[in-house]
Amino acid sequence: MMKRRFFLLGAAGLGLGACAGPDHPFNREAGIETDEGAFGNPTMHNTLVHTGKLNIAEIMSRRFDAEVPSMVNFAFDSARLDAEAQAILRRQAHWMKQFPELRFRIYGHTDLVGSDAYNMRLGQRRANAVRDYLVRQGVARESIIATVSRGERQPLIVTQGREPANRRTVTEIAGMIRRHPTVMHGQYAQILHRDYVRSAAN
After folding, report:
1. What is the rounded CA–CA span in Å between residue 157 and residue 38?
2. CA nearest 143: which of 176, 178, 169?
3. Helix, strand or coil for residue 160?
4. Using CA atoms, how far apart are residues 122 and 108, in angstroms rounded to an integer?
5. Contacts for 72 with CB less than 8 Å, ≥ 6 apart
6. Which CATH code is given to the segment(s) 55-201?
7. pLDDT tens, 50-68?
8. Are the C-beta atoms of 61 and 172 separated by less than 8 Å?
9. Residue 27 confidence (pLDDT)
């Protein structure tokens, strides 16, 4: 019995000795392996939202860009939505309907072929086509506060020839509806979260 006790103590001592290094997790703070290097940031973020110091529209803009393609492309000299564009816009519409507090703008762009005046009109036709399709998908018309043509003035790729990447529309979050005086700033985060969860459950 005595020999067995010494054996167990010796084994325990060897085990502790293996943990003696200063970098071994046994000798470091609990949970340090899960620290991504930004400890406290989630709490700070929530505090800023609930006190109104962080703009919810900015947060949702980043989320929209991360979760949904914001851009659709067009054939040359056309404002017709092809099958790929329609598929993207259905995803946009699904996302937009989850957040009725948000307001959107749609920007129409062209490549550099043609006159500036013609391309301004073409960009407007493209933006209007996207708006009308989104509305047909159930997005409230008042959620889209503007369709704006940029024409050829903001190309993604600067070239005088035909460039598919420049023939596009971009959907962006423009802001939120005016806050009701009885709803505190922080509660708007709860409203957005509530509607998002409810839509995911349906």
Report:
1. 37
2. 176
3. coil
4. 8
5. 81, 84, 85, 88, 89, 130, 168, 169
6. 3.30.1330.60
7. 555 456 778 888 999 999 9
8. yes
9. 59
Q: Which amino acid makes up residue 147?
A: T
pTM above 0.70, yes or no: no
| DSSP states along 93-109 | HHHHHT-TTEEEEEEEE
Phi, psi dihedrals of residue 34, rounded to the nearest 5°: -95, 0
Helices (H), the chain: 2-18, 41-50, 56-67, 83-97, 116-136, 185-201
Helix or strand or coil: residue 48? helix
What pLDDT is stored for residue 8 in this prediction?
47
Task: Name the token pair of 202.
Answer: 């349906």
Which own/partner pairs from 42-49 qualify as long-range (CB within 8 Å, at least 24 positions apart)?
46/189, 49/186, 49/189
Read off the tokens for 142: 């008042």
What was the pLDDT predicted at 179? 52
Q: Name the token pair of 47.
A: 């505090």
**Low-confidence stretches of the chain (pLDDT beneath 70):** 1-55, 178-202
Check the CA dihedral 132-134-140-141 and report its sign. Answer: negative
In order of 5, 40, 41, the CA distances from 35 in angstroms are 40, 10, 11
What is the pLDDT, as a whole number, of residue 170?
A: 97
Q: How far apart are the first and last CA of the chain?
A: 66
pLDDT of amino acid 202 = 58
Residue ranges per structural domain of the chain:
55-201
CB 135 within 8 A of CB 144: yes
